[in-house]
Amino acid sequence: MSGTVSRRFALGKLEEGGVRALLDGLRSVGAEVRNAGYDAGTGTLTVELSGEHAVAEVERFIAAMSRSLRFVSRKVLKENRARILVDGPIDEALRACGDLQLLGEGLTGLRGPVLALFRFFEREVKAIADHFAAEDHHYPVMIPNALLAEMGYFGHFPQHVTFCCHLPDSLPALEAFAAESKQPSLRGLPRLKGRTDPPEHALTPGVCLPCYVQQRDLVLGEGEIRTLTMQNHVFRYEANNFRPLARGWDFTVRDIVFFAGRDDVEARRAAVMERVFAFCQELDLDVTLELANDPFFLDASRDKAVYQRMGEVKYELLFRLPQRPEPLAASSFNLHRDYYTAIFNTRLSNGALAESACMGFGLERWLYGFLSQKGLDPVNWPKRVTG
Q: Phi and psi at residue 338, in whole multiples of 5°?
């Protein structure tokens, strides 16, 4: 049987945090899931699938995720309620304003006042990094597959990876490709399948990832807190879930990364969260700071969602979206413990493994969250932004 099919799942006592994590996970499954919605009143999840062939796999996925996520409960660390919220169809308004250029799925260009607002958040987040005396770094947008493999990325988040490939270094192959592209019926798009070399690189799925290998065999001085910051384009494939600014394939992230002993990285994370929350209060943003987890892809990784909750190693800053039922995560505050430092042998002066923490700021998401709450008219924006 072909065509779209719908299935309903009773999620029982799964709490809001678990439901949100399950919905995020479903978005990673791919083209099989056309749509997913949750009715809080009945506790029912409705999933639209591309056909009967996808039913068994998605049922297995939901069952496995639900087993882990039944332990997940919502924990709000801080909450700020905005005094002024501008309601309205922000997605339609953004498309009509002319400041967004939709180049393809998950690929959005900016100009004019929207770009100026993006630059505002870019400067403000860099100022937070400067407050903590972070050393600024810049990396290529490509990362070797071998390095991602060393970090274990493919085993946890294969759904996000975008590989980079190229044509072989062969004159006959290049000439054949160029000649085919000139055929009018192809409109300049010759066949790629079977013609490219195997990819050895990926577009970076995490702006901070290259910084950990830089600390290979590093020994921190007594009491030293090594602090880095970096901003770059990040690439995560989101299947059928792209939405301009809110969910992109290519988006911009600034990270602040700390290397130190456990007490110091936890204290620095708390200090960053306090500073970011105060900034949100100053801008009158409707946000919560909540315990969170990553939507792990494979069965063997799903219990890590429970570990993240129990260890309180990941918090997210969530924007309330007046036009949508689900909030939008714009920043994350992550304790890595010794995951990366064990891989790259980064140690304290006493010989123990150091720990790391990463504070991530998705700039397009900050932009989208702000515009969703304050609208496109600067008259409704706080003076901090317009001044």
A: -105, 25
C-beta contacts of 323-326 below 8 A and 24+ residues apart: 323/87, 323/88, 323/89, 323/90, 323/91, 323/372, 324/372, 326/20, 326/23
Joined together, the tokens standing for residue 140 give 């290529």
How high is the pLDDT of residue 1?
Answer: 41
As a whole number of angstroms, the distance between CA 361 and CA 108 comes to 18
pTM to 2 decimals? Answer: 0.82
Question: Which tokens hold the place of 6?
Answer: 């719908």
Output the pLDDT for position 70.
62
Q: Rounded CA gap, 259 and 135, in Å? A: 12
The sign one gets for the Cα dihedral 17, 18, 19, 25 is: positive
- Predicted local distance difference test score (pLDDT) of residue 68: 64
Which residue has 């990819």 as its token pair?
199
Measure the N-to-C terminal CA separation of the chain; round to a whole number of Å.
60
Residue 53's pLDDT is 81
In 3D, which of 72, 27, 88 has the Cα closest to residue 242?
27
Q: Which two tokens stand for residue 264?
A: 């110091």
- 10-residue block means of pLDDT along the chain (387 residues)? 78 75 70 80 86 82 72 81 91 93 94 96 98 98 96 86 93 92 86 90 96 97 97 89 90 98 97 98 97 55 44 87 91 95 97 97 98 94 90
